Every structure is written in structure tokens, then in C-alpha cells.
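tmp note - ATP-binding protein
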Amino acid sequence: MPDLHHRLNERAKLVSLILSGRSVLMLAPRRIGKTWLMDRVKEDLERTGARAIKVEVAGLSTEQEFLVELCKAIENAQELRERFTAQVLQRLKQLSGNIESGGLAQAAGRLDPRQFLETLVQELNKGESKTVLLIDEFALFVQEFAKRDADAARRLLYQIRKLWQGSGNVVWFLTGSIGLDEIGRRYDMAGALLGIELIPLEPFSAEEARCFFEELQAQKIIGQFSFADGAFGYFVDELGWLSPYHIEHVLKLVDVSNGAASVEQIEAAFGKILSPNFRLHFAAWDEHIEKNFPPDDARAMRVILGIAAQHAGGEVEATYLARLGPGLERRKLLNHLTALVYDAYLVKDGERWRFRSGLLRRYWIEYVA
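out:
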């Protein structure tokens, strides 16, 4: 099936849930194509007649910044630009006289943020068609906001929960490349996620990866070659984490033209991408733990990954506990392992935790451990 990798099943499920009024949190680690999928879902929703408004909030760290970006996206929506903006501004003037000339983004700074957001959603809810707010990297925003003011971030998250529960015509579609549930536990706001539909996004299957390979060739992004016996299976097994990003960048380095790539040539491509010239392709994996976990947790998780990297089959729980020392409780270890599984570093295989990607394990041995 030529479009198997276009996530048609995932898209259909998301659109069905959203049109039924269910708000969604898509759990999607880095380099897996979540933003591409969100853009396709936006297009699918618009074809049904729904209003779909996408906001990118990575890099934001305050409620004010969040509201300003949301207002800009609403004002950029052609069908909302004039009439809706005028309606909201009129409503805000009724609530507060502190509204002068300008658009929604300017008004956002003049009112209590919670009152402003509630008014905005209430006005959107009056529309005849569904309005879907697609918020990309919402988890990153919540984390950065919580670092500055955990209480305010908690209030915002609970308010959004109240809004998605009470505004049937306004649906929220949230994504994040870090676990919002982990952030919720860390800052005592996990209860705000109750009631939202959790949809995990998995990497490509082997069949989807092959379809993606064929599309890359059709678009002349990679060379024209086939796979010799066993070569594609080796590629899939060694890569492990079949994300579009890593599939593309490894296949670009396969040195064969108009022939069949052997296992040895696939292995040579893996060797090239692990060279210093291509370390940038792994930067997100290298930086993620330090950027998104408290220092003590980050140090423990790096030790865990160093232990896991020593053997392709990983290690059992008792080994990690013994190597990390008596200062780490079992529950804390299991929390770290769970986070590393969610973030696609590790996978639980029977009683062992091992690297999900053989390529990432080799990178870790070469440059990190």
C-alpha cells in the first residue's frame, strides 16, 4: 500500500475523536513525525468543515506569551479575522473597561489571563461548527512555565481542563515531545489530565518504513537502490526506533547506485552516521535529559543509560539498583526507567531494560557513556 506511512489510521482515529467532542493529548517522543501528523489532521478537520487553529508554543514560558500566540493564530484564521475578533473585544469591554484599540493579542495583556482565556473559549464555543485548538509542544510550554511559577502553571492546566469539559464546541488537540504525565507528577498537577483522551504515537512499522523508503526514492531524496536479501531486515533491526527522521538520514548515506544494497553497505551507512561529521543528528537525544529533568534525575538517568549500553540485551532491575548504589530507591529507579521508555531510549524486554535502537546505543557508547 503506497501511502501506508501517511498515518491514515491514526489520522482517522484522531479526527473521529475530535469531532465527537473529545479533547486529545498525543504522546509522541522526538523525531517521530508528530508535527507532520498534526498538520495533516488539521487539513483533515478543515475538510469536514471544522475550524482548526494551530499554535506552536515551544519556547514559551509564561501564560501571557501563551495567550498572545493563541490570539495571533485566531486572528490569522481568515474566517475569524474580523467578525469574531470584534465580538470578543466587545465582550471583553463589557467585562472590563480596560480595552482600547488594537486586536486580541494587545487585549490579552490588559485583563486577568484566566478571565481572558475563558471569554475567548466561550465566544469560540458559540460558533456553529467545531473549533479545534491544535497546540503543538504544549508539554514543553507547561514545563517551562512550571519552572518559573508552578502554582500558576497548575492553575492554567486545571482551567484548560475545565474549558474542554464545559465547551463542547471547542476541542483541544495537544502534543508534546516530553511526557506531560511526568511533568504533572513532578509539579503536582497530574489530576488536570484526567478526562483527556491519551493517544500514543508509535514509530513506523517495518511495512510503513518500506513505504517511506519508496517515497523518499520517488522524491529523489535518497539514491535509487533496492535491498539485497536480509539487508532491509538488518536495517530495521539495527535502527530499532523507526522514526522518519533517522530512516531518511541513514538511507541518504547508503553508497550504492542502481543496485541492491547489501548488509555490509547498510552497516557502512550506520558507521558513517556515527562519525563526528553527523553527530548533529543525535543532538536531540543527547540534550533531552539535561534540558527536561531535574539535575539529580538527569544524572541518574545518564548512569542508567550507560549501564544499558554495555550489553545489547540491556540489564535487569537488580543490576541497575546495584550499580546506582543504595541512595536510589527502587520506586525512583522504576520511575526513571519508565521515563526512558516513554522517551524512546529504552524498551522493556521481558525482565530486562535495553536500548530500543541499536544505532542510539552505538552512539551512546561512542560519545556519551
